From TrEMBL:
<comment type="pathway">
    <text>Metabolic intermediate biosynthesis; acetyl-CoA biosynthesis; acetyl-CoA from acetate: step 2/2.</text>
</comment>
<dbReference type="Pfam" id="PF07085">
    <property type="entry name" value="DRTGG"/>
</dbReference>
<feature type="domain" description="DRTGG">
    <location>
        <begin position="214"/>
        <end position="325"/>
    </location>
</feature>
<dbReference type="InterPro" id="IPR010766">
    <property type="entry name" value="DRTGG"/>
</dbReference>
<keyword id="KW-0012">Acyltransferase</keyword>
<dbReference type="InterPro" id="IPR016475">
    <property type="entry name" value="P-Actrans_bac"/>
</dbReference>
<dbReference type="InterPro" id="IPR004614">
    <property type="entry name" value="P_AcTrfase"/>
</dbReference>
<dbReference type="InterPro" id="IPR042112">
    <property type="entry name" value="P_AcTrfase_dom2"/>
</dbReference>
<keyword id="KW-0963">Cytoplasm</keyword>
<comment type="similarity">
    <text>In the N-terminal section; belongs to the CobB/CobQ family.</text>
</comment>
<feature type="domain" description="Phosphate acetyl/butaryl transferase">
    <location>
        <begin position="371"/>
        <end position="690"/>
    </location>
</feature>
<dbReference type="GO" id="GO:0008959">
    <property type="term" value="F:phosphate acetyltransferase activity"/>
</dbReference>
<protein>
    <recommendedName>
        <fullName>Phosphate acetyltransferase</fullName>
        <ecNumber>2.3.1.8</ecNumber>
    </recommendedName>
</protein>
<dbReference type="InterPro" id="IPR027417">
    <property type="entry name" value="P-loop_NTPase"/>
</dbReference>
<comment type="subunit">
    <text>Homohexamer.</text>
</comment>
<dbReference type="InterPro" id="IPR002505">
    <property type="entry name" value="PTA_PTB"/>
</dbReference>
<dbReference type="Pfam" id="PF01515">
    <property type="entry name" value="PTA_PTB"/>
</dbReference>
Length: 696
């Protein structure tokens, strides 16, 4: 089940706060502990907190430190994007969300406010964040001053856009003209898929109206009287510039009176009208121009039994009136009456029981690369391991080491001369303090003689003498592998400079395979846009027979499971099901049968074509009864030629991150890199190696 919901709007002033407050009340009635998170907040003024966060945390008494309730301000996000560090934004948001996820049963996530001009970026960000948090979405739109057609077109476009990336559980159209509520709901239900809940909320004057307190804050006003009544709602406003007898006829219920501060007649007349049975109630009085009534007038006001808020502004009447007219209502923590009203409105127009069940029981199938990498990092951090990197002079290895040390995720040994490595680090301006890593040169190591003798004893039956052993231990791959064998390191990653054979030969000679394992194989974790798939074997075995192919499939399924991916295994071939003939497809069919015999509980299909394995529509058309077709997570290629080319084609054409290869079947983790690997490849492979070492 999903542990959260993402509330996203598609435009400014949508009334999203009403939805968030209503959802929070609804969820608290269904779930014991509900958390709240805003990935990105507006840029606050100094010493001010975000209104949304303060309101939700205080009203519902949620035990979250303010700093933990958000990840970035809007400016911070823009700065990182301008520096080309958009990935850092998502990584930090995932980290903050996961911290809350561990503390709460369910998290309500509120998206951005669309208060900037760059609405396209905000829409993309909301989709990207919800996708990387694997959260379904509630889309909130607003119908203020819009026709039914405009609302429907906006909602349809938003739904179809979000649906490409995430699951949309509900659409809420807010601030709709009351006479349009039912027609709009019927039309939306006919246009939007039935599995998406539709809620239409009419425009409620009490929620749309700002309070006097908001005007004070917006215009930096000074409160002269009526501090206890600053939550008065402003449903109308008018300027007192004419004579009193004429102005009184323009008063309306809950109006804000705007007048220069020297118009004592308007001020006193409005106050008198407020307590008169013959005139409407007013919400407050704004005095403009920085003018304060004379003392006798102030004393007269002070002596009245009932006083509405009276505030003074430095600005003139024209400026103040324009600003007040553009003020949009907000819900803040102190206005409990408005909060309770918002919750009541939400509950009145929403089928809360049905929506709550959908939210709490929803299961997301989205598993993004960022989330996968976050999970890897967290697993590695739980039990820190020591990884040796034999290629200590390579720039990519050094940069990856700097990144790993900064993350404090593993301990690192680099093999090479310390002075030369230091020189490389300084020359390439790599942010690595070499005192934070262990650097060892084989021939000067205090373990060199012990390693030589150990290797001699292990390999003398293969006619290895002491001189040959000494020569072998000067080789960085042999030395690094011996560190693992002797327990001086937990795993090794190599291959940025050396060949696969150079990396694997010592491991096969004395690390050897696990009991019952007949073949060492490899997998790549292919981090696609919305999922992570396991590809095997794409690096080691040129042409495995049926028994070997079956063992690769079982090993790969177990690896997938160990890394949090439910294994659904597709044994790939050029045909699907029973239609194909020939030695190649027969081998795959035989391998699939062997797997079924050895592990009857494993979901497996084979032979099956790649498109039928990963595309639901094609998979169901070719193999309608299959549990794997269209949703395979582990893809086993029939030979190295097919596997290696396919993983590289997918990587290059889709931009997928390929983590690996990760070797399977050895007693201790040794992993081989491609010589074209990047810093990110090395970083990810080291973390995977550390996790493998935890399983030993």
């Amino acid at each position: 089940m999903s542990k959260g919901i993402y509330v996203a709007t598609i435009e400014p002033n949508s009334g999203k706060s009403v939805v968030v407050l209503g959802l929070m009340r609804m969820l608290l009635g269904k779930t014991a502990k509900v958390g709240y998170f805003r990935p990105i907040i507006d840029n606050p003024k100094s010493d001010e907190t975000d209104i949304h966060i303060h309101t939700v945390l205080s009203h519902f008494e949620i035990d979250i430190n303010y700093k933990n309730a958000y990840a970035f301000t809007r400016n911070e996000v823009l700065d990182l994007y301008n520096q080309g560090k958009s990935g850092d934004v998502i990584d930090q948001i995932i980290t903050k969300y996961k911290y809350l996820e561990e503390r709460f049963d369910y998290i309500l996530v509120e998206g951005t406010d669309f208060s900037s001009e760059n609405s396209t970026l905000e829409l993309d960000l909301n989709m990207l964040i919800s996708k990387n948090l694997s959260l379904p979405v509630i889309i909130v739109s607003q119908g203020d001053n819009k026709s039914v057609k405009e609302i429907i077109d906006n909602v349809q476009l938003a739904h179809d856009t979000f649906k490409q990336e995430v699951d949309v559980l509900s659409i809420i159209a807010n601030k709709v003209n009351p006479i349009d509520v039912e027609p709009l709901k019927e039309l939306l239900q006919s246009r939007i898929p039935q599995n998406t809940d539709i809620t239409v909320i009419p425009r409620i004057a009490s929620l749309a109206s700002p309070t006097v307190k908001e005007i004070v804050k917006l215009l930096d006003g000074t409160v002269l009287f009526g501090k206890d009544h600053l939550n008065n709602l402003i449903e109308n406003y008018s300027v007192g510039a004419m004579q009193l007898r004429n102005y009184l006829t323009h008063l309306k219920d809950n109006a804000l009176v705007i007048t220069p501060g020297d118009r004592a007649d308007i001020i006193l007349g409005a106050l008198q009208a407020n307590i008169s049975k013959n005139y409407p109630k007013i919400s407050g009085i704004v005095l403009t121009g920085g003018l304060i009534p004379e003392d006798p007038i102030l004393q007269l006001i002070e002596g009245l039994s009932s006083i509405v808020p009276i505030i003074s502004l430095k600005e003139g009447t024209y400026y103040a009136t324009n600003r007040i007219g553009k003020t949009k209502s907000k819900i803040y923590a102190e206005n409990t009456e408005k909060i309770n009203s918002a919750i009541s409105v939400f509950e009145k127009y929403t089928n809360t029981d049905h929506l709550a069940d959908k939210l709490i029981t929803f299961e997301s199938e989205i598993f993004t690369p960022r989330m996968f990498q976050y999970n890897l990092l967290q697993r590695a951090l739980k039990n820190k391991k020591h990884i040796v990197l034999p290629e200590g002079y390579d720039e990519r290895v050094l940069r990856a080491t700097a990144k790993l040390i900064a993350a404090q995720v593993v301990d690192i040994t680099l093999i090479g001369d310390k002075d030369k490595i230091k020189e490389r680090v300084e020359k390439l301006d790599i942010p690595l303090n070499i005192e934070d890593v262990n650097i060892v040169s084989p021939t000067t190591s205090p373990y060199y003689d012990d390693y030589v003798n150990t290797f001699y004893e292990l390999r003398k039956h293969k006619n290895v003498n002491l001189e040959m052993a000494r020569d072998a231990m000067t080789d960085v791959s042999y030395f690094g592998t011996m560190m693992i064998y002797k327990g001086h390191a937990d795993g090794m990653v190599s291959g940025a400079v050396h060949t696969t054979q150079h990396t694997l030969r010592p491991a096969l000679q004395f690390i050897k395979t696990k009991p019952g394992v007949n073949i060492v194989s490899s997998i790549f974790f292919m981090c696609l846009e919305d999922r992570v798939s396991v590809f095997g074997d794409c690096a080691i075995n040129p042409n495995p027979n049926a028994a070997e192919l079956a063992e690769i499939a079982i090993q790969s399924a177990e690896s997938a499971k160990n890394f949090g991916i439910e294994p659904k295994v597709a044994m790939l071939s050029y045909s699907s099901g029973a239609s194909g003939k020939g030695a190649d497809v027969d081998k795959v069919r035989e391998a699939a049968e062997i797997v079924k015999q050895k592990d009857p509980q494993l979901k497996i299909e084979g032979p099956i074509q790649y498109d039928a394995a990963v595309d639901m529509k094609i998979g169901k058309s070719k193999l309608p009864e299959s549990e794997v077709a269209g949703q395979a997570s582990v893809l086993i290629f029939p030979d190295l030629n097919t596997g290696n080319n396919t993983y590289k084609a997918v990587q290059r054409e889709t931009g997928a991150l390929a983590i690996g290869p990760m070797l399977q079947g050895l007693n201790k983790p040794v992993n081989d890199l491609s010589r074209g690997c990047t810093v990110e490849d090395i970083y990810s492979t080291v973390i995977i190696t550390a996790i493998q070492a935890q399983e030993e």
